[in-house]
Specification:
156 residues; mainly alpha; Ferritin
Length: 156
C-alpha cells in the first residue's frame, strides 16, 4: 500500500529518534553495569529493548507503506557522566519523544492514516511511561540522596 510521503518522512524521523535513544540507553546501561549498579543496568537495558521494539514497529510500518526505512540517521547522543546526569539526559530524550509522537499522531489522523495513528499512539503511551519512570527515579534520588539511592541499586 503506497503511503503518504509526509507520513513516511515522519516515520523515518521518529526512527532516527528511536535509534538514537537505543544507543544512549545502552551506553548508560553498560556504564551502570560497570559501576556495579546491577538493578539500574537492568532497568535501563529494559527501556532500550522497548525502544528497539519501537524501531522495529516503525520499520515495519514504513515498509508496509512502501517507503524505505532510513537506519543511518541519528540525533546527537547525550551520555551522562554520572547517574543523575544520565537520568536527566534520558528524561530530555523522552520529553522530546512525547512531543514528537504527539505531533505524529495528530498528523497521521489529519491525513486519514488511522492505522499508523494507532501504532504511533501505542508507542506514545510507552514513551509517556518511560518519562514517568525516569521522573520517579529522579524524585527518589532527590528524596533519598544519591548515595542512599545508589546503595539500593546494587546487586551482590
Amino acid at each position: 500500500m503506497k503511503g503518504d510521503p509526509q507520513i513516511i518522512a515522519t516515520l523515518n524521523s521518529l526512527l532516527a529518534d528511536e535509534l538514537t535513544a537505543i544507543n544512549q540507553y545502552m551506553v548508560h546501561s553498560e556504564m551502570c553495569d560497570n559501576w556495579n549498579y546491577g538493578k539500574l543496568h537492568k532497568s535501563i537495558e529494559k527501556r532500550a529493548i522497548v525502544e528497539m521494539k519501537h524501531a522495529e514497529k516503525l520499520i515495519g510500518r514504513i515498509l508496509f507503506l512502501e517507503g524505505i526505512p532510513i537506519v543511518s540517521d541519528y540525533r546527537k547522543v547525550y551520555i551522562g557522566a554520572d547517574v543523575p546526569k544520565m537520568f536527566e539526559n534520558d528524561r530530555m530524550a523522552e520529553v522530546g519523544a512525547v512531543k514528537s509522537y504527539n505531533a505524529a499522531v495528530k498528523q497521521a489522523g489529519d491525513l486519514g492514516d488511522f492505522a499508523t495513528r494507532d501504532i504511533l499512539q501505542a508507542i506514545l503511551n510507552d514513551e509517556d511511561g518511560h518519562l514517568d519512570e525516569i521522573e520517579g527515579v529522579q524524585d527518589q534520588i532527590s528524596q533519598m540522596g544519591l548515595q542512599i539511592f545508589l546503595s539500593t541499586r546494587t546487586e551482590v
